[in-house]
Amino acid sequence: MHTDVVTDVLIVGSGPAGASAALALSTYGVRNMVVTRYASLADTPRAHITNQRTMEVLRDLGVEQEALAKATPQHLMGNTTFCTSLAGEELGRVRSWGNEPLVQAAHELASPTVMCDIPQHLMEPVLVDAAIARGTVFRHSTVYKSFTQDADGVTVTVEDRVRGDEYTIRAKYLIGADGGRSQVAEDAGLPMGGQMGVAGSINIVFDADLSKYTAHRPSTLYWVLAPGATVGGIGAGLVRCVRPWTEWLIVWGYDVTAGAPDLTTEYAESVVRQLIGDDEIPVTVKSSSAWTVNEMYAETYSSGRVFCAGDAVHRHPPSNGLGSNTSIQDSYNLAWKLKLVLDGTAGPRLLDTYTAERAPVGRQIVTRANKSIGETAPIFEALDGLTPQTPEQLWANIAARKDATEAAEKQRARLRDAIAHKVYEFNAHGVDLNQRYSAGSSTAVVPDGTPDPGFARDPELYHQPSTRPGAKLPHAWITSGTRTVSTLDTVGKGRFTLLTGIGGEGWLRAARARSLDIATVVIGPGQEYEDPYGDWARLSEVSDAGALLVRPDGYVAFRHASAAEDAEEVLAQALRRILGRD
């Protein structure tokens, strides 16, 4: 064995977490390398729902348009349908993923981006290609074996699957982005809560032209209530659109205590036929695989110089579409911190804030995703479909809802209410955008002395913008000359940004006096940026002479409501805390 590779950051895994970590680090000029045991990137759709916060990350990293070009657009995602099969009876729909008119307006107010559906096998090349173009060294067919770490770095042993030999890679930091069976997380001894393997599911990828059953009710998801659908998995049979309307993925449950069924082509086709409900349509099964529903989250995301991200630290079902989104946002949170520590701008304590900020988010989304599975049960209950019975009895219960009786009317109401409650899975705008970091646990957030007002509305359903330290900078459309830009477009790009207005000259001088590269943004009449709609004035929560210091990831790190005579010292003190220098 010999050491012949040296880098600053080694990333194990090329999924959404690993690929986005590489892209962010290369964008920031940090030397990095990705190793993956596989000979290619993802070859199946897997993760797909891509929310507005993730699109904001991709926008800042310069690949938003490339992702949109590969995606199914939002307006084709949103008629989530519950039915007995695609060709069978429809039981109801939920306007989903921002396609309900009031929610759509909330989406437009919340962000300059739109959510979309990018299957993982299309997303990964966007991230990886851009990362490589910007400097990432990428090695396929390279298996992580083990690591040792010391005060100065991490030595990682890998195996080249092409040559069959082992060698070591020396890095200053290691990121384990190696998925739900993460060897890096296990070797790092990261403590986990929850449990693995709580239910079983099967993915079946197939081609079929289902336009006649789907084009008139375009959706990413079609939920099939059929005999056996409540076993394992996600609470019902699921037909998921990969590409409208010819590429598909089915999710079907199995009894995890009995083990996965024999995934023959014949078995896969039988499940596909049952959920489509039309035996005449040509179907080509491309692949099938078994997986388990997990409810597990890491309590800490790092050990020394080893950090983990993505499914390595939060493992949950695909409900709410949170997996790849949270993974990408993990890496985005970590990358700028690594960059500042590596170049000496920040002290190592800044890296402690990665766990402090992201672990609560991971626990929240694992809980939410599993709760969404349970929220499917009332749909079956409305049809008396959870009690043991023959398929004939289930069909009779479904048919009974059409009777002109008081009992049937009550059943119809229960069914409508149960389907409508799935808004917590399909329109959870707050889950997507309300993530806030606590100044009480993260030193990269400076408290401003004001009491936390909490959320005025349901924090899972409704995005509620705030400039409170620890919140994401609110989006507002402002102008610069003839250009209209989002406030989010003025921040990011690997730098801190100070936003102020007329009367904020003291804050500008304070920012420019720092050796740290701080971009400055002045918003007001006659300034570089103007607020013609008054949106920023309503959202900023500070006076014109006040200031917001925004981190490279778009989160407010420091807020001061007004001018300060000692602005330079106030800002310097805040930065010492944020950068781990106090």
What structural keywords apply?
582 residues, alpha+beta, 8-stranded mixed β-sheet, 24 strands, 31% helix, globular
Topology:
Blueprint: E1 3-12, H1 16-27, E2 32-35, E3 49-50, H2 52-60, H3 64-70, E4 79-83, E5 90-95, H4 101-110, E6 116-117, H5 120-133, E7 137-139, E8 142-149, E9 154-160, E10 166-176, H6 183-188, E11 192-207, H7 211-214, E12 221-224, E13 237-243, E14 247-254, H8 265-276, E15 284-298, E16 302-303, E17 306-308, E18 314-315, H9 323-342, H10 352-374, H11 377-382, H12 391-400, H13 406-420, H14 423-426, H15 429-433, E19 477-480, E20 483-486, E21 496-501, H16 505-512, E22 518-523, H17 535-539, E23 547-550, E24 556-560, H18 567-578
Parallel strand pairs: 1-2, 1-10, 2-7, 4-12, 10-17, 21-22
Antiparallel strand pairs: 3-6, 4-5, 8-9, 9-10, 11-14, 11-15, 12-13, 13-14, 15-18, 16-17, 19-20, 21-23, 23-24
Helix pairs in contact: 1-5, 1-9, 9-10, 16-18
Largest sheet: 8 strands, mixed
Percent of residues in helices comes to 25-40%
Distance between the termini: 43 Å
Q: Classify the secondary structure makeup into a structural class.
A: alpha+beta
Unreliable residue runs: none
- How many β-strands, per DSSP? 24
Radius of gyration: 25 Å
Write structural notes for this entry.
The protein has about 575 residues and is an alpha+beta fold. About 30% of the residues lie in helices and about 25% in strands. The protein has 18 helices and 24 strands. Strands 1, 2, 7, 8, 9, 10, 16 and 17 form an eight-stranded mixed β-sheet that branches. The protein has an eight-stranded mixed β-sheet with strand order 5-4-12-13-14-11-15-18, sandwiched between helices. It has a four-stranded mixed β-sheet with strand order 22-21-23-24, covered by helices on one side. Strand 9 (about 155-160) and strand 10 (about 165-175) form a beta hairpin. Helix 1 runs parallel beside helix 5 and helix 9 packs antiparallel against helix 10 (about 350-375). The longest helix is centred in the middle third of the chain and has 23 residues, at about 350-375. It is globular, with a radius of gyration of 25 Å. The model has no long low-confidence stretch (mean pLDDT about 95).
